[in-house]
Amino acid sequence: MVQAWYMDESPDDPRRPHRPEPGRPVGLEQLRRLGVLYWKLDADKYENDPELEKIRRERNYSWMDIITITKDKLPNYEEKIKMFYEEHLHLDDEIRYILDGSGYFDVRDAEDKWIRIHMEKGDMITLPAGIYHRFTVDEQNYVKAMRLFVGDPVWTAYNRPADHFDAREQYVKFLTQTA
User: Fold this and answer.
1) Cβ distance 44 to 52 under 8 Å?
2) Contact, 142 vs 70, CB < 8 A?
3) What tens digit of pLDDT does each residue of 15-65 get?
4) DSSP structural state of residue 128
5) What are the start and end residues of every segment in region (Disordered) (predicted)?
6) Rounded Cα–Cα distance for residues 114 and 112 (Å)
7) What predicted TM-score, i.e. pTM, was given to this entire model?
8) Does 94 belong to an annotated binding site?
9) What is the pairing mode between strands 37-40 and 123-127?
10) Of 137, 22, 141, 153, which Cα lies nearest the Cα of 5?
11) Does residue 144 sit in helix, strand or coil?
């Protein structure tokens, strides 16, 4: 099962866990209230997994590709890692399925605090359009992930502040309705 927690405020290497003492765990229900959805799948059979196909069909995830984030596979690795870790939002949902390796998605809660979600092989997550978030690999420096989209892929990230976008306004409205 996925692990999530409120992050400490340390400026230390973002690839470290950043777990405060005492810990402040976050459960799936709290993530759901933020619009973050989670599934645990069998990544060893992603090519022919009926459960993945069912999710894709039900949620209309029609496009996919696979990205490997590691120094020897991703051109401009250091630059890309810095870009992924900049706080941003998207105008569409962000859907990622970890096929191998591990990393962290950080999302902002309703009070603007960082929640760190540790993603490992078999974890699939959907971040709603308009949520501020960021991503980094962990200390393994390796993750292989499936990227899924509804329709054609849109790669545009809007760095914070981006509150003027309709997707952000709709997300903030969603938060007030689930509070």
Assistant:
1) no
2) yes
3) 999 999 999 999 999 999 999 999 999 999 999 999 999 999 999 999 999
4) P
5) 1-26
6) 7
7) 0.97
8) yes
9) antiparallel
10) 22
11) strand
In this predicted structure, the answer to whether residue 72 has a pLDDT above a threshold of 80 is: yes
User: Torsion-angle region of residue 76: left (phi > 0), alpha (psi -120 to 50) or beta?
Assistant: left
All residues at 6 or more sequence positions from 43 whose CB lies less than 8 Å from its CB, including other chains: 97, 98, 99, 100, 121, 122
CATH of domain 3-171: 2.60.120.10
Tell me the pairing of strands 63-69 and 123-127: unpaired
For residue 133, give both structure tokens.
């978030």
Q: What string of DSSP letters covers 25-57?
A: B--HHHHHHTT-EEEE--GGGGGG-HHHHHHHH
E-strand spans in 70-112?
88-89, 94-108
> What is the C-alpha to C-alpha distance for residues 49 and 1, in angstroms, rounded to an integer?
19
The answer to whether the annotation marks 118 as part of a ligand binding site is no
Establish whether 133 is an annotated binding residue: yes
Please answer whether residues 25 and 45 qualify as being in contact, where contact means their C-beta atoms are separated by less than 8 angstroms.
Answer: no
Q: Which of 41, 73, 76, 70 is nearest to 148 (CA)?
A: 41
Question: Closest Cα to residue 107, out of 92, 91, 123, 129?
Answer: 129
Q: Which residues pair with 89 in a beta bridge?
A: 158
Output the six-digit token pair for 168: 């952000």
pLDDT tens-digit series, residues 110-132: 999 999 999 999 999 999 999 99
